[in-house]
Amino acid sequence: xxxxxxxxxxxxxxxxxxxxxxxxxxxxxxxxxxxxxxxxxxxxxxxxxxxxxxxxxxxxxxxxxxxxxxxxxxxxxxxxxxxxxx
Length: 86
Description:
single chain, mainly alpha, 3 helices, flat
């Protein structure tokens, strides 16, 4: 076994152990179904970034732009419908 293989084995064990600790801590704050959805979303993004890096950047740019526009629209709609309280 080469030192590189040994390093990968140690790295995988550290990641695996940290994932168990992170799951225990985060389940105190999130419902289990939401936590599973967040984990799978993160995995898909990481894999997508590795397999299709150019389309990943394009999609992320459009997603961030849409998120900002939706936030501004929701903020404007909330201000237009808000009632002043005295």
